[in-house]
Design goal:
By secondary structure, the protein is of the alpha/beta class. The chain has 11 helices and 13 strands.
Length: about 450
């Protein structure tokens, strides 16, 4: 891979001064609106994530490729859509492992000379060491993962060790929201969701099977508070991780990327957890990208590199598919035209940056219950196609809560047809077999 041209605005060419370390921090099932420094619908306190927000760029309209763990993580690790990566379900024959021949971000960074390290939840089958990670500790115990990650910084000597590292630290929480106590309620204090009382009229029937349907407002208040506690538990470990990164001497030469694999319904539309839906609650994710910390003691090959960089927010549509192109760009490698994503690095450097016209999402099945769905989400319109079941169309400018399904409204036939075309084109260009799939009902019988 050839190096990219030197960045604009007087930034030091990385090819002349050495390559940065890159740290990717992932949480599991964390909504975009659980950050106290940005959007906070849960009254959470997140000083660790806040510190990244304060010195980085927050992408306010970032989306995963699937509202479920395995497929979403397959996209993060490969830069491909779940069906392309061969992991498009959490249970059953399509839940992994990744194909042995597939190229992951670990392989790519190893080929660039990086030390590749993975600590934490994997959820893609097989051993991370088979997929390009030289050091790998797969664990669902978040403190163990973070402590192992911190040892990397303390046991490396930043003065003498010149080989850069690419590290993934993958936390399980707030996924442990599944272990909330049954039946507990508490008085409602958090502002109610605008779509809390959605009766799902005119919407595809699989949505009526989502967990949480029929729960009281008080039950969901307890749920949201319990969920907030799991977010804060993960954040405390992020504080520890970032502190050790700094005290180990690496903060001044390390890009930090923070995101989550997907979100959680948390009571929106009267639903809990995740499932066969494409609402923003599960598809929209936090995404913050931070440059190396200028002025912090450590190995900084280009102390002037980020003069003029301004932390802030971006509103363009971006996707988890953009992570690998961004990481390659940070490492000074050329873009791979075979990947559908694009680098986010220009947005940090003041260079021209354009998001996607639309982001695409996929859902296949959860165990024997197969409800194939595809989503095309533009800035102001969202379309979902449930194969053999129905369609949804939302005007997000007028209806950001996604309550009124306009798919059957003749007044919006043009938007419906245009977005159908986006899904068809997506399936054509990715060899997605979506239109040949068939749904099943909850007992896994063919759906009539």
């Amino acid at each position: 891979m050839s190096p990219v041209p030197p960045p604009a605005d007087g930034l030091c060419p990385r090819s002349q001064v050495g390559r940065p370390n890159i740290l990717l921090i992932l949480t599991d099932q964390q909504r975009f609106d659980t950050i106290s420094a940005r959007v906070n619908s849960f009254e959470v306190n997140t000083p660790g994530i806040d510190s990244l927000v304060g010195r980085g760029v927050s992408f306010d309209r970032a989306f995963c490729t699937s509202p479920i763990c395995g497929p979403a993580r397959a996209s993060i690790m490969t830069g491909l859509y779940p069906t392309q990566a061969s992991v498009d379900a959490n249970l059953g024959p399509n839940c992994g492992p990744l194909r042995g021949s597939i190229v992951t971000v670990g392989h790519r960074m190893q080929a660039l000379g990086y030390e590749t390290v993975y600590h934490g939840k994997w959820h893609l089958g097989g051993d991370p060491a088979r997929y390009g990670f030289e050091k790998a500790l797969e664990t669902g115990h978040d403190p163990t993962a973070v402590h192992a990650a911190c040892r990397l910084y303390r046991e490396r000597d930043w003065v003498s060790t010149k080989r850069p590292f690419f590290q993934v630290v993958s936390l399980l929480n707030p996924h442990d929201v599944y272990f909330l106590e049954p039946g507990i309620e508490r008085p409602v204090e958090l502002p109610p969701w605008a779509n809390r009382d959605d009766d799902l009229t005119g919407k595809p029937w699989p949505q009526s099977l989502m967990p949480g349907r029929g729960w009281s407002a008080e039950r969901f208040e307890y749920y949201r508070r319990f969920y907030a506690g799991k977010v804060e538990k993960a954040d405390r470990l992020i504080v520890e991780l970032l502190d050790e990164l700094t005290c180990g001497g690496y903060a001044s030469n390390t890009f930090v990327i923070f995101s989550s694999d997907h979100g959680d319904m948390a009571g929106e539309h009267g639903m809990a957890f995740k499932g066969p839906v494409m609402y923003d609650g599960v598809m929209r994710v936090p995404l913050v990208v931070c440059p190396p910390r200028h002025g912090v003691l450590g190995s900084s090959p280009c102390p002037e590199a980020w003069r003029g960089f301004t932390p802030g927010r971006r509103g363009e549509l971006v996707s988890h598919l953009d992570l690998i192109p961004t990481i390659l760009d940070m490492a000074g490698a050329a873009a791979d035209p075979a990947l559908p994503g694009r680098s986010l690095l220009p947005a940090l450097q003041g260079r021209p940056f354009t998001g996607h016209d639309a982001v695409l999402g996929e859902w296949r099945e959860a165990g024997p219950h197969r409800t194939p769905i595809r989503m095309a989400r533009e800035q102001w319109w969202k379309y979902t196609h449930y194969i053999g079941v129905g369609e949804e169309l939302y005007d997000l400018e007028r209806d950001p809560a996604e309550v009124a399904n306009l798919a059957a409204d003749p007044a919006h036939a043009a938007e419906l047809d245009r977005l159908r075309g986006r899904v068809k084109e997506h399936c054509r260009t990715t060899d997605d077999p979506f239109f040949t799939m068939t749904p099943t009902d909850r007992p896994a019988s063919p759906h009539p």
